[in-house]
Specification:
Elements: H1 2-24, H2 33-52, H3 58-64, H4 66-90, H5 95-114, H6 121-143
Helix pairs in contact: 5-6
Length: about 140
């Protein structure tokens, strides 16, 4: 669990850096230009990191996993479109809404339903807490 917490924190910090950059950028007539450039830099960084782990089986891995790679690429696209719409129209404070909804969709739909990962009473409690968080966020926004 300690490593999982550290990895989640790493991902959260990376996401905060992305949101900070996106919110700090000026408006463009092309709403996808910022994300395109950001993802291009990300691809270059992954290209460098991937070259450190290059193996003879890399191409066969890509061929054998092309369908899942395609699905994940579409998922990244939809995520970044959602980020753009959310942050450009409502601001970074709405990230908590995305985060909780992401917990629900990823944990329940992907983890529990699609991959049949173990789910116990504590997981159910965390999902209930996430639903409560969405409700409380909505109440807070109604009063803001």
């Amino acid at each position: 669990m300690n490593n999982a917490l550290l990895f989640a924190l790493l991902a959260a910090v990376g996401n905060a850096i992305f949101v900070y950059g996106q919110r700090g950028s000026s408006q463009s007539q092309n709403p996808f230009l910022f994300t395109l450039c950001s993802i291009s830099i990300c691809c270059l960084l992954f290209l460098g990191a991937s070259s450190l782990y290059k193996t003879p089986d890399d191409m066969s891995y890509v061929i054998n996993n092309y369908g899942n790679i395609l699905i994940s690429g579409v998922g990244f696209f939809v995520t970044f479109i959602g980020f753009f719409l959310l942050y450009s129209r409502y601001g970074a404070s709405y990230y908590s809404l995305y985060a909780v909804l992401s917990i629900l969709t990823t944990s329940i739909v992907v983890g529990m339903i699609l991959y049949r990962e173990p789910f116990n009473i504590y997981h159910i409690g965390s999902v209930c807490s996430a639903l409560l968080t969405v409700f409380l966020f909505w109440c807070g926004q109604m009063r803001a």
